[in-house]
Each structure stands twice: as C-alpha cells, then as structure tokens.
TrEMBL record:
This is peptidoglycan glycosyltransferase. The keyword Ubl conjugation does not apply. Pfam families: Transgly, Transpeptidase. Residues 1-26, 633-712 are annotated as: Disordered. Its EC number is 2.4.99.28. Keywords: Carboxypeptidase, Glycosyltransferase, Hydrolase, Membrane, Multifunctional enzyme, Protease, Transferase, Transmembrane, Transmembrane helix. It is an enzyme of class 2 (transferase). Pathway: Cell wall biogenesis; peptidoglycan biosynthesis.
Length: 712
C-alpha cells in the first residue's frame, strides 16, 4: 500500500493475505497494531533524506512542522494572536480615538466678561485655527521635517534607523536624541502622559502604528503642527506665528520658519520672547539640519539672518482673580469644543465689584484677612473678594476656606424651631446649665429666667440657643441646614453645633441665607446667568420653600437682630435682615444678611486662626456690610422713579439720608422712628406697658455692640 510519505512491506500480505483495517472508530484491540500508525515497524519512509548537519536539521524541522501536535499548537497560537490583535484594536479605539488628535491638547483661552461686557480675566492656552499642509510654503514644512523627522514620509510611524542612530549617539556620548518620529510625538502629547518609562514608549509606538493605519501622512503632520507647543502658553503653528511674528503661517519667511521649528525641542527654554539669543543659537542647528537634509545650500543657510520679533498681540488682562478662578471650571463646562478663543459673560457686576474692593481696602484690617460675597437671591454672584491682595495670595477665602460661622448659624436653629410651630414671642430659658461636660455661657455673662425667641435671637444668647437646639433636636436642625444647601460636615448630637462650631465656607453660608431671602432653596451659587426653569423641573424638581407665615417670622427675627440687636452697626434706612457671628476667642468675625435683591456675607479673620484684636461680628464686619449695601443701593443706581401726580404728598428733602437720623428717639412722651416709608412720630408707650407677646418675658438688658461668642 502506498502513501505520500512511504509504503508498507507486503511480506504479510504475500504469506497471509492482506491485513484488514480495523477503522478509526474500532473498539477492538487490533487498533493498537494498526499499520496506519507511523511508528509501525513495517512502515518505510521513502522521502529523500539529506546527509550532513544542516540537511538533518532541515529534515527534523519538517518532521516537527508536520507532526500532529505541532499543527495543533500552531492553530491555537494563531488564534491567540488574532484574539490579542482584536483586543489591541479595541483598546486603541477606546483609548486613542482618532478624533482626539483633532482636539486641543490644553484648554483653549477663555476671556471672562463682566455682566456689562467689561473683560475681567483671560485664562487658558493660546490657540488658533489648524493649519493645512498643502497651503504651507515648502520652506515651512521642510524646516520642521529636517529638524524633527527627515524620513517622515518613508516610515510607518516608527523609524528603526532613527532609533538606532539615537541609541548609538546616546551611548557614545553625543548630543542626546530621542528617536521619536513626528507620528510618535503626536501620539505622545495627544494620548499619553509625559511619563518616562518603557511601557509608555511601547504604547507610544503602538498608537503611532494606529495613526499611520488610519490617517494620511499630511493629516498626521497637520495635526502635529496644529497642536505642538511653542512656548509662551502658545500652541499650534498658526498661533505661534501670529504671536511671535504677527503673520499667518502661510506667509512665514524662511528664517521665521527656522526659528519656530527650533522651539519644539524645548519651547520654554528657547522662547524668543524671553530667551532670544538661545532661540538664535537653536536656529543655527535648524539651518544645519536643512543643509544636511538637502533642502537648502550652505550659502542659503549663511544668508539666513535671525528674524526680528513682532509681538503686538499681548495679553493685558490678568490670568486670574478671585472671581475668575472660581468661575473658570464652570466656564470650561460651558465652552464649546474646538481651537477658537471664546468669551463668556458672567454675572459679575463691575460696579459692585469695585465697591466691594474699595470697602475692603478702606476697612482698616491691619494684618487680618477679609472676604466678601454678594449674590442675588437666586445664587447669581455679582461681587467677590477672596482676600486683601490676590497678587500676594490667590487662596480664595470666600470659597475655599472652611471656617466656623459662629452665631450666624443660629439662624438655622431658630428657623427649625419656627417650622416646628414655635413663635417669636414664645419664651425660652436663659439660665446657665450643664449638658454632660458641655456648659454654654453667654458672652456678657448675663442671664435671666426667660427670654422670648425674638429677644434671645437679637441678644444672641448662647444659653437660650442651645436650649432651643435641644428642644428642636439635632437631626431637625442639621436636616434644615442640608435643605438650605449646607454640605459641609456637621456633627450630630453635639450641642455646640447650635453656636456655629461646624466649619463651612462663606459662599456656602451666604447661599443658605439667599435661600431664606428668596424663600426658595437650596440655592446653588453660579457665575453665569441661570437658564429659565423648564416645566418638567417646575413640576418634579421644584425647590423647597417655607410657609409664608414662617418666612415672615424668621425675617422678623433677622430684622430685629439688625434694628435693635447685635447687628445695629449694619442698620440701613430700609428693610434689612441679617445676623452677626463671632467664634471662640474672636478667631472669626462675620456678618451675613440681605436687603433689596442683594445677599451679602462678610468674613474677617487671620489665616493662622489666631484671635482678632478688638473685632467681632457686630463691629467691623457689620460696618463693612453696611458700607457696601449703602453704595450698592445708591440713588444713582436706583430704578427710575415713576412720574408722580402734582397732588402727591411732598417728600422732605432737607435730610440727605434717613440713616442720618437715629433709628428711634424718645423725648417728652413722643417716639420718632425712621424706616423705608420716611419718618414717623407717635406717642411713646410707657416703659411698663404690657408686651404683645403671647407669654410674658423679662425686659432685655442693654446690649453691647459685640454679640456673644460660642463657648467651647
């Protein structure tokens, strides 16, 4: 019987006849001696065999490749390789999408404008439109190819010759070379981090092959030139040519192109705006590369002179302010993708910002720091001061500092009580008590049997507030604070929380007061005009609000705190609402309140948390708040008055400002008061007249200007 590889001897067939084949599926023992097996002793291999070592090795290799086990593993190896290749393609499609190479590698420049269009800050990388290779002069393209990748149009993303040349040069002590092609550089700064490791280099090569597979050479070069960094916060050839020479890249001269091509090796070190002589020396290396690559002759290189700079596109705006730093992340979210520079209008009121700056500058703070936030009741921030000097410290104390709010937190305790059914005239105990190891004390060390809630709030009694906190419950007060937008940690079951020992930012605290001012909460502070709320949100995501009666009652308490309580230094001629705050040992002093359509928070303190000298919430912060509010609500900024009838009552004009008259003057049985409607004269009630409160309460003792500070 013949086979492709040999024959069996026919001795048995001659003597005993042919041996029957038992079949591949036979269960008989004769299968063991099947003459089909290659190890059968009667099998004769008739293939030609070579002699000597190499023919023998060749024959052995053929045997291995044709063996059943070799074919088995070869098939599985090929399948594994194919599976791995599929995984690599999927990984590249996810981690290195081709569209990303069309996107800026750094956030493009954004100019923030005040509400009136006044530029206030410019931040981000300088970009311009991408370039097109077929529109660039040859001397521009050649300068970059000669310097960065001479064999760019000849390799597949990775240049073995370039790698070998760079390796040998580095080993022999020559100038350090990277060996990366333009495609690899595009892969590196578009998809990878600056990490220096073999794994990152391997990923770089892999992505380079991926880019070469799907993009043309011109497309790769265009994306490279449009994203490369040229120093001075400038990215892309078009932006760089405009920045350094004030001309489009299509009109660059050979010497200008040579200088720009030289910047890519170390953009910050060679930026001609800062290091012109270095840029000139680097330009010499570029000219040598152009000559070596055959793009220009030595005579042309010698005739190429360093180009003069024309930097007329300078940025005269600050890159940051306290408000701009806070607004920038939201601005990035709102900005459109692409290379174009964009301008976004914010809610900042330039006039109010200048008022805030003037008021803080003239406050006489000494070495202390201060912060001010002004917003509308809907959370639109119109003014922000994060410190006394941004150039000295960019740390924003209005948004980033976590400080104790002191007695300004008491507003949430009393509001929670009012929501539980308490009334401003209800009495609360004002005698010292001990709760475990905690013993609250009043600032002036004065106590009485009872105070009404309104009196206790105006007097800022620590003892009464902690008692009320215990009656209402820690969970109820903290829950209300959360509803108002306070997200900072607050310890449950800690009675000192009632006195404002839980740290939070001034922005957070002011936004909570804005929720009370507009009776709509929580309020999320924003640097941009809020979009109108849609029908769906009005129905299913409607903001919380308190009842009209509760809102009137909390405003009654806030008004009393200013008009006759610890916040008297902040009193305005019209309706005003607010609360003072001073922390333990006068480490923080605050005043937060609202009037008209402005909600303003003021904080004063030291960055090292040391005590302030002679400053409390009812003193300097209240006066800063008042000074800002009076100028913000000045007559020059008021809405035009409606034409009055000639028969209307004549308004007194001999008093320039109603605030120049004391709030309440009692003389000869008459009481003179001032409010938003003018001056009222009425018969003063007897001192011992019965109170309108539903339950009797003792008379308030004379108040000091400073309000109590919370005890430890």
């Amino acid at each position: 019987m013949a086979s492709p590889r040999g024959t069996w001897r026919d001795d048995e067939e001659d003597e005993a006849g042919p041996v029957g084949h038992t079949g591949y599926y036979s269960l008989s023992e004769s299968m063991i001696d099947d003459p089909w097996e290659e190890d059968d002793p009667d099998f004769v291999d008739e293939r030609p065999r070579g002699t000597g070592m190499w023919p023998a090795l060749w024959d052995r290799g053929i045997d291995i490749l044709t063996a059943h086990s070799t074919r088995f593993w070869a098939i599985r190896g090929a399948a594994a390789f194919l599976f791995l290749l599929i995984l690599i393609v999927i990984w590249l499609a996810i981690t290195a999408p081709l569209s990303k190479s069309l996107e800026p590698i750094a956030p493009p420049q954004i100019t923030l404008l005040a509400a009136d269009g006044t530029p206030i800050a410019r931040n981000g990388a300088v970009y311009d439109e991408p370039v097109e290779v077929d529109r660039l002069p040859d001397h521009v393209v050649n300068a970059f190819l000669a310097t960065e990748d001479r064999r760019f149009y000849d390799h597949w993303g990775v240049d073995p010759r370039g790698l070998a040349r760079a390796t040998i040069n580095n080993w022999t002590g020559g100038p350090t070379q990277g060996g990366s092609t333009i495609t690899q550089q595009l892969a590196k700064f578009t998809f990878l981090t600056p990490e220096q490791s073999l794994s990152r280099k391997a990923r770089e090569m892999l992505i380079a092959f991926w880019l070469e597979t799907w993009l043309t050479k011109d497309e790769i070069l265009e994306r490279y030139l449009s994203n490369a960094y040229f120093g001075d916060n400038t990215y892309g050839l078009r932006a760089a040519s405009l920045h350094y020479f004030y001309r489009q890249p299509e009109k660059l001269k050979p010497n200008q192109a040579a200088m720009l091509a030289g910047l890519l090796k170390a953009p910050s070190a060679y930026a001609p705006s800062q290091h012109y002589q270095r840029a000139v020396e680097r330009m010499g290396a570029v000219k040598a590369s152009l000559v070596s690559a055959g793009y220009i002759t030595q005579e042309e290189a010698d005739a190429m002179r360093p180009p003069p700079l024309d930097m007329r596109l300078t940025n005269d705006l600050p890159t940051g302010t306290y408000f701009a730093d806070w607004a920038l992340p939201e601005a990035r979210d709102r900005a459109s993708p692409g290379y174009a520079q964009q301008s976004l209008t914010t809610t900042l009121d330039a006039r109010l910002q200048n008022i805030a700056r003037d008021v803080i500058a003239g406050a006489g703070l000494g070495n202390a720091q201060a912060a001010l936030v002004a917003m509308r009741p809907n959370g639109e921030v119109v003014a922000m001061i994060g410190g006394t000097d941004y150039s000295q410290s960019a740390f924003n104390r209005a948004t980033m500092a976590t400080r104790q709010p002191g007695s300004t937190f008491k507003t949430f305790v009393y509001l929670a009580a009012l929501q539980e059914g308490y009334k401003p005239g209800d009495p609360i105990g004002n005698r010292p008590f001990t709760q475990g190891s905690y013993r609250p004390e009043n600032y002036d060390d004065r106590y009485s049997d009872f105070l009404t809630l309104e009196q206790a709030f105006a007097k800022s009694s620590n003892v009464a507030t902690v008692r009320l906190f215990n009656e209402v419950g820690s969970d109820r007060v903290i829950g209300l604070a959360r509803d108002l937008g306070i997200n900072s940690p607050i310890a449950r079951g800690d009675p000192s929380v009632a006195l404002g020992t839980a740290g939070m930012s001034l922005m957070e605290l002011t936004a909570a007061y804005a929720g009370i001012a507009g009776n709509s909460y929580p309020v999320r502070p924003t640097a941009f005009v809020r979009e109108p709320v849609g029908l769906w949100d009005r129905i299913f995501n409607a903001p919380r609000s308190m009842s009209a009666s509760t809102h009137r009652e909390i405003e009654q308490l806030l008004r009393t705190a200013i008009n006759s309580g610890t916040g008297r230094a902040a009193q305005l001629p019209g309706p005003n609402f607010g609360k003072t705050g001073t922390t333990q040992n006068n480490r923080d002093a605050l005043f937060v309140g609202y009037a008209g359509d402005l909600v303003v928070g003021v904080w004063i303190g030291n960055d090292d948390n040391t005590p302030l000298k002679g400053i409390s919430g009812g003193g300097l912060p209240a006066r800063i708040w008042k000074a800002f509010m009076r100028r913000a609500q000045g007559s020059g900024d008021a809405a035009p008055a409606r034409r009055r009838s000639p028969n209307a009552p004549v308004q007194p004009l001999d008093v320039p400002d109603a605030s120049d008259i004391p709030a309440s003057i009692a003389e000869d049985g008459a009481e003179i008061t001032t409010d938003e409607s003018g001056i009222t004269i009425r018969e003063a009630p007897p001192i011992d007249a019965p109170s309108d409160a539903p339950r009797p309460a003792p008379e308030i003792a004379p108040l000091r200007e400073e309000e109590p500070a919370p005890a430890n």
